[in-house]
Specification:
Structural class: mainly alpha
Order of helices and strands: HHHHHHHHHHHHHHH
Shape: globular
Strand content: under 5%
Helix content: 55-70%
Number of strands: 0
Distance between the termini: 25 Å
């Protein structure tokens, strides 16, 4: 399977759809009676009141989430190949994206985090375009606006704002105008939102938007140990990917090293930003799918022992399906 996806072949799209369907066999068998979908944060519904909570049947919800995931996987694959992050064109980023995006049952349903991953992919594309550009103020201004729009959909997306400044540290010499452009883009969206609240005599609700920022970091997290066993093969693959990347790190071009460093910070921020959501749902960790997929794809492309990497991927697929069914 991995050998097939190492090359760019249109037939891989059909295989990708088949694998995405296979990774949902458990939820198709044990389909919930009802699934609710929150399209936007409550504070943004005054601006756009879209009643989508129960607009989809459970089957339509799962199928829509699958279609979105496949589209995102193809976009992600194009971005990785366009900037040469893996060294040569391949279809592995799409395969890893679909696989990592199907790890846990909450990942298989429509969620605001899944929708926000479109914006994360957009941000990755813009991040990678910063390198060696003469003028980036317009790019980082757009990035600030993207984070603001994503925050309206899912508040923890605001955690991606510091990532823009991190990207400037990694890719650019310090320029205060570029740093200021980030916050200007972010404020632009919320300025118009504040004006809209003011017109509707609801300015007090606008102030309540920022309450999650005052939330204390949780000290007790309830994690189902049985469900988390599916992460063991992923952790092993990520560790092997890290060592594979380390072997080639200083022999790689500067842009590749800086790009993976940025993806590392994206992964860490995606993990730690869960505390911004009062009632944590596991779909939040979809934010970690793009950077994790890039490292997993790097390992599977450069790994030398076929029996090992094919076995690892087979074990990963088996674990995902098994923990869905049982």
């Amino acid at each position: 399977m991995i050998k097939q996806f190492r090359s760019v072949n249109p037939f891989n799209i059909i295989l990708l759809i088949g694998i995405a369907t296979l990774l949902r066999v458990g939820i198709f068998i044990h389909l919930p009676d009802q699934i609710s979908f929150e399209f936007m944060e409550p504070f943004a519904r005054l601006l756009i009141d879209v009643p989508l909570e129960n607009a989809f049947s459970p089957l339509a919800n799962v199928l829509m989430a699958q279609i979105i995931l496949i589209i995102q996987a193809l976009i992600f694959n194009r971005i990785i190949n366009s900037y040469g992050l893996l060294g040569k064109p391949t279809f592995l980023p799409a395969l890893m994206y679909v696989t990592a995006g199907s790890l846990l049952s909450p990942f298989l349903l429509l969620s605001p985090a899944l929708v926000c991953n479109f914006m994360i992919l957009w941000m990755i594309d813009k991040f990678l375009s910063i390198y060696k550009r003469d003028e980036v103020r317009s790019v980082v201004y757009d990035l600030g606006m993207i984070v603001a729009v994503g925050t309206l959909v899912y508040f923890p997306f605001i955690s991606m704002l510091p990532l823009i400044w991190i990207s400037l540290v990694i890719f650019r010499p310090f320029n205060w105008r570029e740093w200021f452009a980030v916050i200007s883009g972010f404020i632009t969206i919320f300025f118009f939102l504040a004006v809209f609240y003011f017109w509707n005599d609801s300015l007090d609700k606008f102030y309540s938007i920022w309450l999650p920022l005052t939330t204390k970091f949780p000290t007790n997290l309830r994690i189902n140990l049985y469900d988390s066993l599916v992460l063991i093969p992923v952790v092993i693959i990520l560790i092997l990917g890290f060592f594979q990347l380390q072997q080639n790190f200083f022999r790689s071009v500067v842009q590749l090293r800086k790009s993976f460093l940025l993806l590392f910070f994206m992964f860490i921020i995606g993990l730690l930003s869960f505390y911004l959501k009062q009632n944590l749902v596991l779909y939040h960790f979809l934010f970690c799918v793009p950077p994790a997929s890039a490292l997993m794809a790097y390992y599977f492309l450069h790994a030398g022992r076929r029996w090992l990497y094919e076995s690892l991927y087979f074990i990963l697929l088996s674990c995902i399906i098994y923990f869905q069914l049982f």
